[in-house]
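Please fill in the sequence for the structure shown.

STRUCTURE ENCODING:
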């Protein structure tokens, strides 16, 4: 039947960054497709409401803390079963400084949250996916990892997101023999906690519209379809890819 390839019935999924925005939208989409979803974020109060809504498991964890990162997958496996799906949607910008002024601490925090934590969670999920004979990992990157963005200093953020594409191709090749697929989605601009300042000013909105070929503002729901496709059997022969969902930003 049409659409059956997108069903995720019986599969356990882990979604990080699920306390708001894209992560929450992804969690809702995977649950609607039949997955049992564990949602991970630092703000546990927000997780509790979403977990109740989707009948999922809330896992409070600060992904800047290595011990808390390492505890996520074992907890999910103990309570829901071994994960076959991992969506690394957590990320943040710790500095708006120009590259020459970024502090060592902000650079390190950015890389740890945006790149190291996804790598560690992928390692933790690997054994469960190998045992299941299949798995799908999706990293959420950004167009900032593909092209420079004029007027927005974000060197460490861009480096961390570009790193996800490198991690993606390497894991995809190493783990393909286990039928574990690894891909990255690189969203363009949409309103989020990171981009609120752009959308809250007329100047920012005009800048976005001038640089985005499609004439519509994006929302998290515009990104979710690509993630659902990549974690489902509909994309069973897709691995090692970074897919921009950006309204044409990188096509200019």
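FILLED IN BY: designer on duty
SEQUENCE:
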């Amino acid at each position: 039947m049409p659409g059956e390839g997108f069903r995720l019935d019986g599969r356990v999924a882990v979604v990080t960054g699920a306390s708001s925005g894209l992560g929450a939208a992804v969690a809702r989409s995977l649950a609607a497709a039949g997955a049992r979803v564990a949602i991970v974020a630092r703000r546990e109060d927000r997780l509790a409401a979403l977990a109740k809504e989707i009948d999922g498991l809330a896992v409070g964890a600060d992904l800047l803390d290595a011990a808390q990162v390492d505890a996520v997958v074992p907890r999910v496996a103990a309570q829901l079963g071994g994960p076959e799906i991992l969506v690394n949607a957590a990320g943040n910008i710790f500095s708006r400084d120009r590259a020459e002024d970024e502090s060592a601490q902000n650079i390190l925090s950015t890389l740890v949250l945006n790149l190291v934590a996804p790598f560690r969670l992928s390692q933790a999920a690997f054994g469960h996916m190998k045992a299941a004979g299949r798995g799908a990992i999706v990293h959420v990157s950004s167009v900032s990892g593909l092209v420079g963005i004029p007027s927005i200093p974000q060197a460490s953020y861009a480096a961390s997101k570009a790193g996800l594409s490198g991690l993606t191709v390497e894991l995809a090749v190493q783990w393909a023999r286990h039928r574990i697929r690894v891909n990255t989605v690189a969203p363009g601009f949409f309103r989020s906690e990171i981009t609120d300042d752009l959308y809250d000013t007329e100047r920012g909105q005009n800048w976005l519209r001038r640089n985005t070929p499609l004439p519509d503002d994006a929302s998290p729901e515009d990104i979710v379809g690509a993630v659902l496709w990549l974690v489902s059997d509909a994309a069973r022969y897709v691995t090692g890819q970074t897919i921009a969902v950006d309204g044409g930003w990188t096509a200019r």
